[in-house]
Design brief:
homodimer; 80 residues; alpha+beta; Mth169, Chain: A; 3-stranded antiparallel beta sheet; 35% helix; 38% strand; elongated
Chain lengths: 80, 80
């Protein structure tokens, strides 16, 4: 069994309203030293596969077909 | 300037509908070897602080006051 840790973030230039709102609220709460906030998403998939390479290939296909949007997302996958 | 990488996940036993839905959809798409899927959230905060310890203390307070819910969330913070 392999565990894939897929970290999905917005591409540079894509607006991140959640991050912006958190930043604003932190400032309102008095955290003046906060310079920027970005939100990301992690999906952890446990799957069976013949090898680590096979698992990585399957997870890559999952990302393409369901988990990420190539227009707005960059993602990294770590298999363990 | 320090960068805090805050990974927020649901506590054990808390229902993760997003993860469950992704799992179901992956099965429907033919990824039969998927055993489980969990969703998590990452918030990246860039902030000024006197030291790494000071940054960690500030981020801990942000987590308590705004970013996490102690009833449902576990979180880890990595400062770099």
């Amino acid at each position: 069994m392999f565990k894939a840790h897929i970290e999905i973030k917005l591409k540079k230039g894509v607006v991140d309203p959640e991050g912006k709102n958190i930043e604003k609220t932190l400032h309102l709460l008095g955290f003046d030293t906060v310079k920027s906030v970005h939100s990301q998403k992690v999906i952890v998939v446990e799957l069976d596969a013949a090898s680590k390479e096979d698992a990585a290939a399957k997870v890559g296909e999952m990302c393409k077909r369901l988990l990420t949007n190539p227009v707005t997302h960059d993602y990294t996958v770590v298999i363990s």
